[in-house]
Amino acid sequence: MSKRWMKTFGLLAVLMGGASGAWAASAPPLTQLKVLKVESPNCGFEDIAEGQEQTRCDHTGPNIKVYVLEVGYGREAHIALDGFEVSGTRTPVCAFDNGNLTECTVGKKTVGYLYVLDLAGKQGGIFTFTNMSINAPGNRMSTQLYIK
């Protein structure tokens, strides 16, 4: 009976990450959402300061892009401008020994994502970004910015 148990346990160990006992670390929960920049033909790049509630420059017009940093792992981001869904791209970012975030290269640990969101001809309004952690504690984070 113990040989059958050992075979079953061995198969289970292989299915769950290998017989060596190596386990992957859990994904870090969301710890930060931040609008970094807003870009438009009218204003170029505008840096968004911590706690800033609206853009200083009048970005109104086509081709507005918003750059958002998400630190941690979210389940499914909900991104909108005045309630209408916004799409874009998501690129992994990694932390290096000096603590700076940068694009990931092979073998580096992903700590979050940089979203580049295209407002697709929309003229400005209230931009919102909400996400929930992929794991415990399942916290929900959001940020918003009025884009004029």
Structural features, described:
The strands form 2 sheets. Strands 2-1-3-8-6-7 form a 6-stranded antiparallel sheet, with no helix packed on it. A 4-stranded antiparallel sheet has the order 5-4-9-10, with no helix packed on it. It has 148 residues and is mostly beta strands. The protein is globular. 9% of the residues lie in helices and 43% in strands. The chain has one domain: Immunoglobulin-like.
Q: Low-confidence segments, ≥5 residues, pLDDT <50? A: 1-23
End-to-end distance, in Å? 72 Å
One letter per element, helices H and strands E, the order comes to: HEEEEEEEEEE
Major β-sheet profile: 6 strands, antiparallel
* Rg measurement, Å: 21 Å
CATH class: Mainly Beta
Which quaternary structure do these chains form?
A: single chain
**Mean of pLDDT:** 81
Helical coverage, percent range: under 10%
> What is the number of helical segments per DSSP (H or I, 4+ residues)?
1
Q: Mind telling me which CATH architecture this is? A: Sandwich
The fraction of residues assigned to DSSP E strands is: 35-45%
How do the strands line up in the largest sheet?
A: 2-1-3-8-6-7
Q: Tell me the domain tally.
A: 1
